[in-house]
Amino acid sequence: MLTLQSSFCRFNLVGRSRSKLEKYFSFQDMSLETAKKLAATSAVDDNVKSGFAVGIGSGSTVVYAVQRLAELIEAKQLENIKCVPSSFQSLQLIRKHHLRLTDLEETPDLDVAIDGADEVDAVLTCIKGGGGCLTQEKIVAASAKNFVVIADYSKRSECLGETWKKGIPVEVIPMAYVPVTKKIEHLLGVKPVLRQAVAKAGPVVTDNGNFILDCPFVPGKLLDTYATNISIKMIPGVVETGLFVRMAQKAYFGLADGSTKSLESSEL
Ligand SMILES: O=C[C@H](O)[C@H](O)[C@H](O)COP(=O)(O)O
């Protein structure tokens, strides 16, 4: 059961939050990849049991979680695991590691979903969608009893927007991207940017055939994540936002010193 968390940041001074964070995160030379692997491995070890239906997120950190699942299954420490993907990438990961594939039609109630994030704040609100996946991820996370976030130490912050500077990703129906852009501009006072593809001419097209608008954070203003998420979602043409508010029960961070820090929403 989630406790009611504030949808505002608990701290509004970056300097103050940084000194608090340094208790947990000493920025040494631990590679981000090693930190991702630490977080993913601990999350799987602590949260997946035999017989579980597991939602598999998307992105580079989740690769290590799927690797760990495969290792434990191979070692017969886990049995009868079913996996539901949240993107084409995670579908391929599940297949590559020969895990049992299912979907929400066959398995609508998941025991746990494990996913990465672009930023995680002090009350475990996340920004997701930096890699273009957010709608299916949110559906999969919302279908799970426990949503567990895994990340390296660079993703942790007190307030969203401290470390992730690209704004809030919003998936939109292509024919609506201009009206949605205008409405978000009116709502937030900042102009969303249509995300452009890197190895393709034109905009990024999501797994659902939609576009992504990146909505910049309003400079100097605390983000009310709960209200902002709802306001953006109410705009016709918006499919989903990358704000995951009051969804994560736990987060695991791989730290710079080679350890892992886990946080639970019930303790915050
Ligand atoms: O769109 C991508 C997803 O939301 C990812 O989970 C998020 O971007 C984090 O990805 P990574 O683990 O690669 O940092």
TrEMBL record:
Superkingdom, natural source: Eukaryota
Q: Does the keyword Isomerase apply?
A: yes
GO cellular component, alphabetical, reads: cytoplasm
InterPro entries from the xrefs?
Answer: NagB/RpiA_transferase-like, Ribose5P_isomerase_typA_subgr, Ribose5P_isomerase_type_A
Which UniProt key words apply to this protein? Isomerase
Q: Which reaction does it catalyse?
A: aldehydo-D-ribose 5-phosphate = D-ribulose 5-phosphate
The EC number(s) given in the record are 5.3.1.6
- What pathway does the UniProt record associate with this protein? Carbohydrate degradation; pentose phosphate pathway; D-ribose 5-phosphate from D-ribulose 5-phosphate (non-oxidative stage): step 1/1
Q: Which GO terms describe its molecular function?
A: ribose-5-phosphate isomerase activity
SUPFAM superfamilies registered for this protein in UniProt: D-ribose-5-phosphate isomerase (RpiA), lid domain, NagB/RpiA/CoA transferase-like
Signal peptide span:
none
Q: Name one GO biological process term.
A: pentose-phosphate shunt, non-oxidative branch
Family membership noted in the UniProt record: Belongs to the ribose 5-phosphate isomerase family.
PANTHER family given in the database record? RIBOSE-5-PHOSPHATE ISOMERASE
NCBIfam families according to UniProt: PRK00702.1, rpiA
This protein is called ribose-5-phosphate isomerase
